[in-house]
Amino acid sequence: MAASAAADRAAVPTAPERIVIENCAIATVDADGTEYASGHVVLAGNRIEAVGAGRAPEDPENVVRRIDATGHLVTPGLVNTHHHFYQWLTRGLATDHNLFDWLVALYPTWARLDEPMAHAAAQGSLAMMARGGVTTAADHHYIHPRGAGDLSGAIIRAARDMGVRLTLARGSMDRGESDGGLPPDFAVESLDDALAATEATVREHHDPSFDAMTQVAVAPCSPFSVSTELMRQSAELARRLGVRLHTHGSETVEEEKFCHELFGMGPTDYFESTGWLGDDVWMAHCVHMNDSDIAAFARTGTGVAHCPSSNARLAAGIARVPDLLAAGVPVGLGVDGTASNESGELHTELRGALLINRLGAHREAALNARTALRLGTYGGARVLGRAAETGSLEPGKLADLVLWRMDTLAHSSIADPVTALVLGAPAQVTASFVNGRQIVEDGRLLTVDEDAVARSTRDEARRLARIAAQD
């Protein structure tokens, strides 16, 4: 009898640990754009259990922490849809170049990347984003020099230790200088090696589960560094493995000219001819798109990673984001690599997206503060194929959220907290939760030593510069 009673007790599920956040403004970014001037969020384990107006109920079981968030705005965690973590080691170089000249200037240095460098650079990139409210990040890593080590593993380890949700877009290049491409020949892979290594990365690291911390996408670099056959076979590989596809597209006028000269068609038509349009695809930049291109993306559900600061830094142009959104194209925000966006912060891209798009044809009607916030949260989750799991504050979704402090000198006289977040000075992150785990407190990381990361990235950047200078 005693053994039976003990078994019955053991069978009773333990109530999840709950965290209650209350007395805060809330922007849920749900389908209705629900907001609360003063509300609460209840986390149960790694899920959001409740969101609503007023104070939280007093009787939830197993509450381990109550946070009085007076003076704060709570939003979904930011979702970064495009980055190149390795570029953290080459910030501040080639600052007055367009894309092609910038790539030619930096490829010889990037081609000397190795595993310790990739790990340090990923730590630096992730740390900067996480401190600024990013809870999910996508890294497009396409530099795989021969003998460099396990670069994908190094990136994944850095994200795991930081506690940030990661989509690793395992990139590839097989068109080196001798084949008319931009990267040095020793920095590219063969077609077969690229496909085999990409498949191995997916099989080893991709987690398809609802609360996955690591997912992998298939991501050949760009039309001017990848053969048509690699593009075609990468699309086939991704669909056979059930993962997403990512690449650069329509970034510059030079790319448009390159595609017409080499393929006899523009980038969007080229992508369609190689199987690269679909609701499992997202592309970075998409600056130079005509009405037909936008219609093709809308028809197929192809997503866009909008990178306003990088587009401006490289003088690429202004993407037609209002037209993409009006057509129903999924659009998220991207930091892009920190060799073309030295700050490496996504929350500043909310403001950048709004301001830069108002310089375009739609002027003041282009974007507003809430649209910008949606791009950086739900829009990004949709682009990465994770909108059912994250990107908005709704019961049942993952506990990925940020508390922004809004009662200091920087924001206290701006009545609307969403406007304050988007148009005001960068707001301090008082707390950031990923999968229910707090990773930031009062603007500092809890999971890694920021000063140690700063030292290691500086040392690896100097080592990379020394090695590159010897060539």
Model description:
Helix content is 37%, strand content 21%. It has 15 helices and 17 strands. The chain has helices spanning 2-11, 99-110, 115-131, 151-162, 191-205, 228-241, 253-263, 267-273, 291-300, 308-313, 321-327, 347-357, 369-383, 417-423, 450-469; strands at 18-27, 35-44, 47-53, 63-68, 72-76, 78-80, 134-141, 165-172, 214-220, 245-249, 281-285, 303-306, 331-333, 401-405, 429-434, 437-441, 444-445. Strands 1, 2, 3, 4, 5, 14, 15, 16 and 17 form a nine-stranded mixed β-sheet that branches. Strands 6-7-8-9 form a four-stranded parallel β-sheet. The mean pLDDT is 95.
- Backbone shape: globular
Mean pLDDT: 95
Head-to-tail CA distance between termini? 78 Å
| Strand content bin | 15-25%
Low-confidence stretches: none
By secondary-structure content and strand pairing, the structural class works out as alpha/beta
| Record field, number of beta strands | 17
Number of helical segments with 4 or more residues: 15
Helicity range: 25-40%
Radius of gyration: 22 Å
| Sheet having the most strands | 9 strands, mixed
Question: Which properties best describe this structure?
Answer:
9-stranded mixed β-sheet; 21% strand; EC 3.5.4.32; hydrolase; alpha/beta; globular; 471 residues; 8-oxoguanine deaminase activity; Metal_Hydrolase
Short description:
It is built from 15 helices and 17 strands.
Layout of SSEs?
Layout: H1 2-11, E1 18-27, E2 35-44, E3 47-53, E4 63-68, E5 72-76, E6 78-80, H2 99-110, H3 115-131, E7 134-141, H4 151-162, E8 165-172, H5 191-205, E9 214-220, H6 228-241, E10 245-249, H7 253-263, H8 267-273, E11 281-285, H9 291-300, E12 303-306, H10 308-313, H11 321-327, E13 331-333, H12 347-357, H13 369-383, E14 401-405, H14 417-423, E15 429-434, E16 437-441, E17 444-445, H15 450-469
Protein name: 8-oxoguanine deaminase
Keywords: Hydrolase
Enzyme class: hydrolase
